[in-house]
Write a structure and sequence with these properties.
By secondary structure, this protein is of the alpha/beta class. It folds into two domains: about 100 residues, Rossmann fold; about 110 residues, Rossmann fold (3-Layer(aba) Sandwich), CATH 3.40.50. About 30% of the residues lie in helices and about 25% in strands. The protein has an eight-stranded mixed β-sheet, covered by helices on one side. Strands 8-9-10 form a three-stranded antiparallel β-sheet. Strand 1, helix 1 and strand 2 form a beta-alpha-beta unit. Helix 1 packs across helix 6. Bound molecules: 5-O-phosphono-beta-D-ribofuranosylamine (GRF).
Length: about 220
């Protein structure tokens, strides 16, 4: 019998600062054989991030680099970049990493950094997205995966997961519903990247050779 063709796994670092529920979704999909990544490293800027325990439980190497140990943002980012390069990381997944990355860092890894943002970008970049959506009376809300550029939450969008806002929704319920969406759309975007269906070119995202003027949109309950 011929051996099954070895799937090339994209060497990935997942950067966290907190709970790491998105990290957990990635770990599960990789374990299930649905996501061709090699999660080679989990990095946190906080030593108390719960996600570090999730990574350790999955036998993934972890690294804590505290921004408090560095005199400037650039110095922290340079140390982080050196670790990622030393680990030969191809794809960087920001999963609740609460640090703004410097222009030099973003340029060094151009087209190889993704983020998930809990809003239907370009609506509500920045913080407090669920409260802002509720305050505005939005009927739809959700989350967006995008490539990271120097513009905060402004890089080319890849996929958005949309939910209908319910009358009884609160900030807490929206957070929970939106995170459940993230756990599906974020691994999906990474899978496209790993399968070389998704790429970044000159500030734009391409999927299957087509320019994504708008993200792929998926509706969820
Ligand atoms: C996610 O909701 C994501 O949208 C935002 O940070 C949160 C991280 O959650 N960028 P977790 O740490 O993955 O649970």
């Amino acid at each position: 019998m011929k051996p099954a063709t070895e799937v090339r796994r994209c060497r990935t670092a997942i950067l966290i600062s907190g709970s790491g529920s998105n990290l957990q979704a990635f770990i599960k999909q990789v374990a299930d054989g649905r996501l061709p990544l090699d999660i080679a490293l989990v990095v946190s800027n906080r030593s108390d991030a719960y996600g570090l325990l999730r990574a350790a439980a999955a036998s993934i190497p972890t690294l804590v680099i505290s921004h408090r140990d560095f005199a400037s943002r650039d110095a922290f980012d340079m140390a982080l970049a050196a670790e990622l390069d030393a680990a030969a990381i191809e794809l960087i997944i920001l999963a609740g990493f609460m640090r703004i990355l410097s222009a030099a860092f973003v340029q060094h890894f151009a087209g190889r950094i993704m983020n998930v943002h809990p809003a239907l970008l370009p609506l509500y970049p920045g913080l407090d997205t669920h409260a802002r959506a509720l305050d505005a009376g939005d009927r739809q809300h959700g989350s967006t995966v995008h490539f990271v550029t120097e513009e905060l939450d402004g890089g080319p969008r890849i996929i958005a997961g949309r939910i209908a806002v319910r009358r009884e929704d609160t900030v807490a319920s929206l957070k929970s519903r939106v995170q459940a969406v993230e756990h599906q759309i974020y691994p999906q975007a990474a899978a496209w990247y790993a399968e070389q269906r998704l790429s970044y070119r000159n500030g734009e995202a391409l999927l299957d050779g087509q320019l994504l003027n708008e993200p792929v949109v998926r509706d969820f309950d």
